[in-house]
């Protein structure tokens, strides 16, 4: 027994020495930062060193008495003197675990990356989970704490970026903490003025794609509804197969799937040629619809519940138009659908507060931050983007770019000239 214990001690000592040898100077500095815990080494194809960890955050603003939680962040090192990109993710950051993880700005500027998972998502959920503290203001305070803490290690300029809800977060972060970063790139970020903003329905009816494509999409939606007698049983069987549950009857969820199709079609750049013939059998048309706007979007438990709570309270969202479809739908009004479909009953008491919207609009109109907005011309989210009203002609710094024909994946790399060169020139200047 004594020999076994001696062997175990020697083995543990050997493991400790190896671990100490594998710990870099940067990692030791990282571990020493106040509030950082659970640091783990990750594999990477792009970075010299990559880590995932938790950073201690207050559940409610600067008031630590309300409790704390661990927010998951990823720190990806190229060079401590290089620019650093803080990614203001709007949802889960689970994709950061991939060895292939990198982003456009990281590649373009050989930059370090600090990826921040949004509070209440995935590994960043407070316990207990009090939804009153799921606010944009608190999420921005999270980012500020990350910036100050990790900023002790990186010496270069800082740039914030995010896409979609993450792009919104980049925009709000700059509006409330304008001096935290040296530049910002906000991709495809809406700025909605109410729970059902109203501009998206008009966009889908008159501006998305070409008139011919819009007509093809509408005809496909009509055909799905006309075939209700055969499509709804198929739909119900599909939902039962995958274990989807809903707060509304299956007939109504079917309608919402058909209504959602137009938005999803243009958001993700589905080609009109991919839509099966409306004179063909049920199966190809049904399979196409559920692949583009699947019913899992409306099901519970809802993986996007934290976002839906924010949409109701501060972020806003889009509505649906029944024009050209109402003749065949069971749903005769979609007003207030988000609460009825997406939120659990105990969360439906929340109401929309326009304070965030008004503050951000005022900031963007009055100030001139070193900030770039990118949108896709065909993306329905651009209907409520700043590209619809923000006039940058008299501003020296801030610019808005719209990628012709682009969708929700619009980015710098795919931007046409001379816009692409102008974006790069500005960013290079700001990051010098």
Features:
globular, 2 domains, nine-stranded mixed β-sheet, alpha/beta, 9 strands, 432 residues, Rossmann fold
Tell me what you see in this structure.
- The protein is α/β, with parallel strands linked by helices.
- The protein has 14 helices and 9 strands.
- It has helices at residues 2-22, 25-32, 104-108, 136-150, 165-176, 199-206, 211-226, 228-242, 250-267, 282-292, 305-315, 337-342, 355-366, 419-430; strands at 36-41, 49-60, 63-77, 84-88, 112-116, 158-163, 183-187, 371-376, 399-403.
- α4 (136-150) packs across α5 (165-176), α5 crosses α13 and α7 (211-226) runs antiparallel to α9 (250-267).
- The longest helix is centred in the first third of the chain and has 21 residues, at 2-22.
- The radius of gyration is 24 Å and the shape is globular.
- The model is unreliable at 1-21 (pLDDT under 50).
Give the DSSP E fraction (strand runs of 2 or more residues): 15-25%
Low-confidence stretches: 1-21
Radius of gyration: 24 Å
Q: Could you describe the largest sheet, including whether it forms a barrel? A: 9 strands, mixed
Q: From N to C, what is the helix and strand string?
A: HHEEEEHEHEHEHHHHHHHHEEH
- The number of helical elements comes to 14
Q: Considering the protein shown, what is the CATH homologous superfamily of the largest domain?
A: Alpha/Beta hydrolase fold, catalytic domain
- Would you report the number of β strands? 9
Q: Going across the biggest sheet, name each strand in turn.
A: 1-2-3-5-4-6-7-8-9
Share in helix: 25-40%
Could you state the oligomeric state of the chains shown?
Answer: single chain
Average of the residue pLDDT scores: 94
Q: What's the CATH class of the largest domain, please? A: Alpha Beta
Number of domains: 2
Cα(first) to Cα(last) distance is 64 Å
In terms of structural class, how would the helical and strand content be classed? alpha/beta
Query: What's the CATH architecture of the largest domain?
Result: 3-Layer(aba) Sandwich
Shape: globular
- Reported by name, the CATH topology of the largest domain is Rossmann fold
